[in-house]
Design brief:
The complex is a heterodimer. Chain A is mainly alpha-helical. Chain A has helices at residues 7-18, 21-42, 53-57, 61-94, 100-112, 118-128, 133-142, 156-180, 184-192, 197-225, 229-234, 242-251, 259-288. Chain A folds into two domains: 1-42; 60-288, Orthogonal Bundle (MetI-like fold), CATH 1.10.3720.10. Chain A is globular and about 75 Å long. The mean pLDDT of chain A is 86. Chain B is of the alpha+beta class. In chain B, the strands form two sheets. In chain B, strands 3, 4, 5, 6, 7, 8, 9 and 10 form an eight-stranded mixed beta sheet that branches. The model of chain B is unreliable at 1-33 (pLDDT under 50). Classes of the chains: A mainly alpha, B alpha+beta. At the A-B interface, helix 2, helix 4 and helix 12 of A face helix 1, helix 6, helix 7 and helix 16 of B.
Chain lengths: 292, 378
Amino acid sequence: MSASQPATARLSRLVPYLAIAPFLVYVTVFLLYPTLIVVAGAFTDDSNRLTSSTLRVLTEGVYLRAFARSIELSAVTAVAGAVLGALLAWAVWSGPREGPLRRAVTAAAGVLAQFGGVTLAFAFIATIGLSGVVTNFLQDQMGINPFSGGVWLFDMPGLMLVYVYFQIPLMVLVFLPALDGLRPEWREAVESLGGSGWDYWRNVAGPVLFPAFLGATLLLFANAFSAYATAAALVSQGSPIVPLKIRGFLTSEVILGQQNLGKALGFGMIIIVAVVMTLYALLQRRAARWLR
Amino acid sequence: MDVKSSVPRRGVVAGIAALALLAACSKPPAKTSTAEASKAATASSVSDVGGLDALVAAAKKEGSLNVIALPPDWANYGTQISTFSSKYGIKINSAQPDASSQDEINAAKQLASTSRAPDVFDVGLNIALANTTMFAPYKVQGWTDIPEALKEPSGQWFSDYGGYMSIGYDAKKVPAPTSMKDLLKPAYKGKVALNGDPTQAAAAFNGVVAAALANGGSADDVAPGVKFFSDLKKAGNFLPVDPTPTTVASGQTPVVIDWDYLNAAQATSLKGKVDWKVVVPRNAVVGSYYVQAINKDAPHPAAARLWEEFLFADQGQNIWLDGSARPVRADAMVKAGTIDQAAYAKLPPVAGTPVYLTDAQTNTAKNYLASHWTQAVG
């Protein structure tokens, strides 16, 4: 390489990067720029003066409780989704690879994992809402009132139930490839050395799958933590979790001029998701070692 | 996996997205401004435009009017819009009918200087006070009929219609309540809904204030109101559902705490299907008026002013009254004999002195709600 290398040659080396330029523009406009606004907003007050008092407000009980509830919701649905999803994935994986069961389940999981949001909330309201099909059936035919202890569907228990509905299929999608990475040779090796099925799962498959399982759980956690539309359509009282608190600051006609508090909450969420996703990336690297 | 072929395709998709984005960012062509329009844009009364006929002519020339957050079943706005449209031949673009007051202001900011920006606002007082810089001062012809406390002296905002907090109920499903405390009884288990979250919607906010008045609180102290809803929740009576005409019609929300004009409108629209009754609870009379304001960057300044003239003339006021809202000129119209007597007589009776919250009281109350509401109903 010499300094006299013609500029055109240098330019031609940039051409491959040109293809991803639109993607970079897209990421800048829809991810980096909004993130910047949120972070900047978290450190300014509503007259745009630099301050740390906006962030200090987050330590007030009501916001800490919102974070605690958000984390509780995400953790419970992540663990439930991961365990049930892994079992389903395992059941599917045990069957024939090109069989109709596997094809049906993966196709359904692909659709249902993306079925969050307003449609999902309304699907639940229509089935087990106050005058939902199932509720009416239970009440009229069996004399059971599912809401005798309170209307839990529009509260935290309801949110957990609905979130698990999209967490399980997502787990199936991300965990099946990990199961596929288990080679039949390993099992044969264990058997030829006199090991039992339990030995195989305990000493070979378990350790190989564990990082993938943990990573997938973290992914589910982030998935639930950042979900908004489902909760917004379902919960109309009390804004129990952080995304709904942020909505309150942006659209409230009662509490005004506190948009920056919403941005501070957003900033808190970014930090939590960043930590979770970093752990996820580290676990993925470890999990990938066996699954090439 | 066919990775090679999928990469450039994704590049193309992103490229198209970027192009679409550029197109979305560029401003639509600015409206053509005429001499009349610019005259109307700064007019602070009908005489500044040269009389009502000149205003009508200028508005007709503009041809349309953008309104926002006006549900057709809210204070009879459906009739208001269709009557105005057919009377003057001006097309009304009604955007986001279910939006909140804050959404109106947000839309005005986001759509500023486009032809889709809202021309007029119908907002809660709270929102109006926080956004006076966005309004063009204007005094309608019936200006002097509006009580002093219910308008801004220069005309930035002026009250239009209001009402009292009430309990609407399905008389076939629940016994008739007369006070807020009645709602704690077992007969109302899983049946009592509040119209929105009080930290977000003005109607629900005033519902909590009414509950406070009924339980030993005052305009200065809403804590007993929050306690009341917490008790309601503990008793299993509170229904965390946002009531809509649909939930009322299907019987999901048999008791709704809301403005009397909204509950009364419910009763009218469900006549024959649901026996919906309205009561203003004893010793818990909270009143509030909504206010009108004109967007100072209104794309149709003449039509915006004509709309206000129409709403505040006897006809517009009676249309609100027909939707069970109390029009702000009601007292003057009773004196002049121009009020729709039949509709006026149908308003729910009120026992006790109505309480109107001052700005300072509102602030104290909302700070309390912001830190206590989630706990109370969570």
